[in-house]
Structure formats: C-alpha cells, structure tokens
Fold this sequence. Notes:
Chain A is 0% helix and 54% strand. Chain A has no helices and twelve strands.
Amino acid sequence: AQKVTQAQTEISVVEKEDVTLDCVYETRDTTYYLFWYKQPPSGELVFLIRRNSFDEQNEISGRYSWNFQKSTSSFNFTITASQVVDSAVYFCALSGGYSTLTFGKGTMLLVSP
Amino acid sequence: GAVVSQHPSRVICKSGTSVKIECRSLDFQATTMFWYRQFPKQSLMLMATSNEGSKATYEQGVEKDKFLINHASLTLSTLTVTSAHPEDSSFYICSARERGTNYGYTFGSGTRLTVV
Lengths: 113, 116
C-alpha cells in the first residue's frame, strides 16, 4: 500500500520568508513517481513537479526547490522569499507502478504581507 | 501540453435530481480516468477509476449506483450523481492518465456541486 504524510496542516509566514513543506512517503514499489501540486482557492490543481524514484537530484525552479532523499523517504518542497500569491494548499502525491495517485492531506500555506 | 476539460465548473441542483459532469482529454488519449471528491479543507479522495470500454472500479465505500461513471471513448469520461442529496455537495475533480504512461496525470479544473 502507498501512503503520503504531510505532517504540517497549516503554515503561516510573512512575505519574503523562506518556507519548507514536508512530505514523507511509503511504498513497496522500486519504481515510483512523486509529485507536488498547488491548489489555490479557485480549486484547480496546478502541477508543480514530478520526480521519478531513480532521480535523486535536487531541483530548483525559480523560487521553488525540491529535496528528494530516498534514504529518509522524503520529498520536501521549499519556497524561497515567499509571496502572497504563494498562499494555497500544497499536496504531495505518490504513484507507484501502475497504481493510482495517492495524495497527502495537504499543507495550507498562508503568506501575509 | 496535455489538457483536460471538465464541465460544468459549478452546478446547483435540487435534491432528488441527477447531475452529469464531463471530463474530456483534449489533445491526448486517456485510457484511464480517475474521479476524485474533495470536501472543504480535506484532501482529494479517489472515488473510482475508469478504463475506456470497461466498467469503473469503485473505491470502498463509494456507491456505484449513486455515482455512475461512463468512459465510452478514449477522450471522454462522465460522472453522474444520481438522486443527489445535500450531503453530495462537494468538489469533484477528474484526472486523465495518458495512454502508455504511468506518471502522466492531468487534472480537470473541477466541478463544485451544490445540492439544495
């Protein structure tokens, strides 16, 4: 069975602060994919990143960066110099083999001016 | 990139009526589509998985007679909420997986259903 744990229910920061959203996963598959999605108040899911289990390289995209560590089964997401527009719910998700996508419970990020 | 169109985005219906939600993959073939339900401040819960041309597989606790899923073509899946009740009010979102991949998930923009 697959499981994704996002222990942080809600995080509040002030604009320009850096913030890290944690994601820990469990799977028995040797090949799997990890995802992060952003869900703004409008509801649609915005795809942020996909990472396969064989690629542990960290990735940076603008103010966003991801740290994938198989040794600790974690796939953490950092926003540098946060902005008000970053306020949203962020979901970490896992897909192993041809199984379905399993979502974590989500972390609500509130960035205040 | 891959696009999934979901309609309607919002619907209000009377208790006892049925509502159909469409999910279309616009520029790719989706052999598998997924339907999720999301209550306020909660995560997405998978309701069912549908494969083109075959019956949907429902998750435990999801009433198949209430939530009818049809996946008649490689680009269209529909979810019909039959005899809707206020407790069916929720955000429904579909996802399509590209043919031949196990990682290409594209989501629709969701449907907010309110049953009055």
